[in-house]
Design a protein that fits this description.
The chain has 184 residues and is of the alpha+beta class. It has a domain of 128 residues. Strand 3, helix 3 and strand 4 form a beta-alpha-beta unit. The longest helix is centred in the N-terminal third of the chain and has 30 residues. The N and C termini lie far apart (42 Å). 22% of the residues are buried.
Length: 184
């Protein structure tokens, strides 16, 4: 038997793939809802890429209340870097949508394209990872985190009391994972 070659599909997965077989049990409504969520995730990925490109090139957007426009313009105005990987270990790292550190102020901005309720904890983890990677003590720097979603901006100024416990948990859990991996 000579199997057909589908080179253009190498490394890709179909929405109705065998590896994600749960769709076999879906009703029509559940399938359509799941597919709409899938399309929203793809759209979010594309919007993040667009925003990162605009920020990298310094291309401002029209000034209005659109979430992505405010996010891009603020990141450019604060001279932030888009899509920065923050690394503590192979067990704990993440990519901040936009970040900068100057004049002892850490800024972290996050673009949310979905409708799910936002949680600032994600940005607090990025702040903890920044402190760990760049040897900064959270009590000795100022921090501002922002989430851009649904034409709103949610701003927080975390303190050492917010970030230090996350740093401790990252260190503890990282050691726990490494010890468990050694024992296996």
């Amino acid at each position: 038997m000579r199997f057909n070659k589908h080179y253009e599909l190498a490394g890709k997965h179909a929405y109705l793939s065998a590896s994600k077989h749960s769709w076999l049990n879906y009703s029509d409504e559940k399938l359509l809802q799941s597919y709409q969520n899938h399309l929203a995730v793809e759209r979010g990925t594309r919007l993040h890429a667009l925003a990162a490109e605009h920020i990298s090139l310094g291309l401002s957007m029209p000034r209005n209340n659109k979430t992505i426009n405010k996010y891009i313009n603020d990141a450019i105005g604060f001279r932030m870097e888009p899509e920065v990987l923050l690394f503590y270990s192979k067990n704990c790292f993440g990519t901040a949508d936009a970040i900068c550190f100057r004049n002892n102020l850490l800024r972290i901005h996050d673009l949310k394209t979905g409708i799910t309720k936002v949680h600032m904890e994600q940005l607090f983890i990025y702040a903890a990872l920044f402190c760990l990677e760049y040897n900064q003590k959270p009590g000795e720097i100022k921090m501002e985190t922002r989430i851009y979603q649904n034409d709103d901006i949610f701003v927080c100024n975390p303190t050492a009391e917010d970030i230090a416990p996350i740093i401790s948990k990252i260190i503890h859990f990282d050691k726990l994972i490494d010890q468990t991996a050694e024992d296996l």
